[in-house]
Specification:
This protein is of the alpha+beta class. It has two domains: about 250 residues, Antithrombin, Chain I, domain 2, CATH 3.30.497; about 120 residues, Roll (Alpha-1-antitrypsin, domain 1), CATH 2.30.39.10. Helices cover about 25% and strands about 35% of the residues. The chain is built from ten helices and 18 strands. Strand 14 and strand 15 form a beta hairpin. Helix 1 packs across helix 4 and helix 4 runs parallel beside helix 5. The longest helix has 24 residues.
């Protein structure tokens, strides 16, 4: 990479709480007293110094039809499953968990500054059906809709309060000539202003500062997202999105029903795991021997979809899973009464996404020929790294999940039972927002221990 090429660091963090950030003109100290409904940096407000503000505020009522919103969710779903296939191919016998929603938002903010063939490649890799202002308007509408999930109320005996937060923040080199138009795009559509840091003189303190923000926004679940050396004196911009989710099941599992049980690994070996059990009414279905079940969380707007491929077909099913097949699986769901046996599990994943994204066709953005002139008016910026970390824990009470992604650009009554589903071999799971169809998290469990 040429010596005068600068890095843009784009960071997405999983923490599902969307609250836009109102921006004012000029460079001012960060104001933690702004209205939460307009401040996307407000989950855990902290003094960060100067904030470079657009003169425009976030658009809180974007004109997006239900058809347009659905099209974006479908495009994001297709990207999610394409990226999942790339990640699972290299995962071997490891579990996989990621937040495609977080990754999509961070890359959309980077795409806002891309031009020419660089923009075309990103749009194709991300499956964007529209471009320009229409695309960013749709992301804004989706983000604002998901923010409403944080308003879900829980009965006094209904478990922990529902938490779903998505937060954007961007970090720029102090005194760098960012274009006003790019600042406007971030402000109007993503509620993000530029928090100014001195990457050039203080790369390591800047890295630690961003990592601390990530940790704060994910309730300490995502630590040290950006590794040492990923931010250096040539870093210009870091784009961050944090997503955090914690919710109780609509119908919790009884701890007294949890018991040791065998679970078959991919290599055929059997291990003992803690298996939960519940007999109830579920939305359940089958397709070509593959079983699928929906487990709703309180509020019934966000659900976990569990897919257990037919015995012996996990790898082939995973390799062929796409948006159409996923939709077909959901189409088999119907209300049935039965017994579900499901493992408890908790694990973390971390990925460097540069190579998987390049395999999806996003190559120029990482090269010295990248064109991000929509950010600074020059062709001196390229993406150096896209880093993603995630965490998930599932037990009798519900689910806790968090994820973070960093894009670094720089120099260079008792009815009869009709089914019994025992999840005792590798399975896939998806945490999905029902009203929008947005896939918030995607994962696989091949070893629940």
């Amino acid at each position: 990479m040429s010596g005068n090429k600068h890095w843009i660091s784009g960071l997405l963090v999983a923490a599902l709480l969307a609250s836009p950030l109102g921006l004012a003109c000029g460079t001012t100290p960060d104001d933690p007293e702004q209205n939460n409904a307009q401040n996307n940096d407000q989950k855990n407000p902290d003094p960060v110094g100067e904030l470079l503000r657009s003169s425009l505020s976030r658009e809180l009522s974007p004109a997006v039809s239900s058809t347009e919103a659905q099209a974006l969710s479908e495009a994001n779903r297709d990207f999610a499953l394409n990226l999942y296939r790339e990640l699972s191919e290299g995962a071997g016998a490891d579990n996989v968990f990621m937040s495609p929603h977080s990754i999509s938002i961070a890359l959309a903010m980077a795409y806002g500054g891309a031009r020419g063939e660089t923009a075309t490649e990103i749009a194709a890799a991300m499956n964007y059906m529209v471009t320009g202002d229409d695309l960013h308007k749709r992301f804004n509408a989706l983000d604002l809709e998901l923010a409403k999930r944080a308003e879900t109320t829980v009965a006094p005996d209904g478990g922990d309060p529902f938490q779903l937060s998505v937060v954007n923040a961007t970090w720029g080199q102090r005194d760098y000539p960012f274009l006003p138009g790019y600042l406007d795009l971030l402000a109007v559509n993503y509620g993000a202003g530029l928090r100014l840091l001195d990457f050039e003189s203080e790369p390591e303190p800047s890295r630690k500062r961003i990592n601390q923000w990530v940790e704060d926004q994910t309730n300490d679940r995502i630590k040290d997202l950006i590794p040492e050396g990923a931010i250096n004196r040539g870093t210009t911009l870091v784009l961050t999105n944090a997503i955090y989710f914690k919710a109780s099941w609509l119908s919790e599992f009884s701890k007294s029903e949890t018991a040791p049980a065998p679970f078959a690994l991919l290599d055929g070996a059997s291990v003992q795991i803690d298996q939960m059990r519940q007999t109830s009414s579920f939305r359940y279905g089958q397709l070509d021997g593959h079983e699928v079940i929906e487990l709703p969380y309180v509020g019934n707007e966000v659900t976990m979809i569990v897919v257990m491929p037919e015995d012996g077909s996990f790898e082939s099913f995973e390799a062929e899973l796409d948006g159409a097949k996923y939709a077909e699986l959901l189409g088999t769901l119907g209300h049935e009464h039965g017994t579900l046996r499901f493992p408890k599990f908790s694990f973390e994943s971390d990925f460097m996404l540069k190579d998987p994204l390049k395999k999806l066709g996003m190559e120029l953005a990482f090269s010295e020929n990248a064109d991000f002139s929509g950010i600074d008016g020059t062709r001196g910026l390229s993406i150096g790294a896209v880093i993603h970390k995630s965490f998930v824990a599932v037990d009798e009470e519900g689910t806790e999940a968090a994820a973070a992604t960093a894009v670094v650009i720089g120099t260079t009554s008792a009815p009869s039972e009709t089914f019994s589903m025992t999840v005792d071999r590798p399975f896939l799971f998806f945490i999905q927002d029902k009203p929008t169809g947005a896939l918030l998290f995607v994962g696989r469990v091949v070893d629940p221990r």
